[in-house]
């Protein structure tokens, strides 16, 4: 008889308790824009509740980014969380996820300069900390790819209004039944544009020094925490991530200071996308007393083994997977069974209907007969 070597439990599959959240495993579904909302009303598609309910086996789902203000919309079919209609539609989604025993946070996402007048109401200019235009890759719009325009810098009072818009969106998230919210401070969108030296050339209190550059993010998080309770607020960051023409001169200095400013608040979690030369997870882990979610963003979908290694090394409490969840709605069950994984169809990621969205199959459920054998 071959010797049976007891296997340590897979760290991704252990339950996790954090503040008011009890998660059935340590796998988070990373936020992913799918572009299927009505482009005029920004109300999510009725398919969206099926899509997230199918993925409720994740310990925690973080939704695609939802805009807090029409100027925060980045492209076609991106949902909002501003109107009563938005709230009602998202309530259907949270109900469906909760009915499956899942937990779901809404991602709050203002894109800043990463949009185009054709996407914004009345052809308005995108807003940003400073008038710094993206010079590289064009931006995707309903009219196809278009060159970026130079964004309009937010006046100080407008930056303060952005804080209020995020707080109002968080209130809407709770009205819609979400378990909490994740503030999108990553990937070169508005909040990271305030954090980064190359996009924030301001001289008011939202720029001018490291503390000035941190201020908008810190005040957004504080305002939301005051509104809905810190235990319902997460923050996503991507230190040293060059995406969307961000160039951070001193990621270590910036993100250590940010973690230091937010650590006393008792937030639900910090969600760190590890990218670039600065080893953010190892550097920030000792500075962050609360829950840490890790994510890797490389050219290929992150593997199960990569997530396990991060948890085994104690670098994070939870690991989030993005692309694997597109094509494997029951990803945790597949990990548990050691089952093969589907690959997603690239051309069906954004926009469209059920194809490439809700039609990826789950593993065959065992039949009563199968269960007996
Ligand atoms: C189709 C797609 C849409 C995405 N949309 C968002 C988003 O709305 N908000 C966000 O913070 N990250 C977004 N991301 C980044 C993912 O959350 C994640 O960081 C990335 O996919 C890397 O994880 P993975 O290797 O497990 O896919 C998106 C990624 C993909 C592939």
Give the SSE layout:
Elements: E1 16-18, E2 21-23, E3 27-29, H1 47-54, E4 60-66, H2 84-99, E5 104-108, E6 127-128, E7 139-141, E8 144-146, E9 152-153, H3 156-175, E10 180-185, H4 190-195, H5 210-228, E11 233-237, H6 251-262, E12 269-274, H7 280-284, E13 292-296, H8 304-312, E14 318-321, H9 323-327, H10 331-337, H11 368-372
Parallel strand pairs: 3-4, 3-14, 4-5, 5-10, 6-9, 10-11, 11-12, 12-13, 13-14
Antiparallel strand pairs: 1-2, 7-8
Helix pairs in contact: 1-2, 3-5, 5-6
The structure holds flavin mononucleotide (FMN).
Flavin mononucleotide binds at residues 30-33, 64-65, 107, 109, 184, 186-187, 236, 273, 295-297, 301-302, 321-324, 349.
Protein name: Alkene reductase
Domain NADH:flavin oxidoreductase/NADH oxidase N-terminal: 13-342
InterPro entries: Aldolase_TIM, OxRdtase_FMN_N, Oye-like
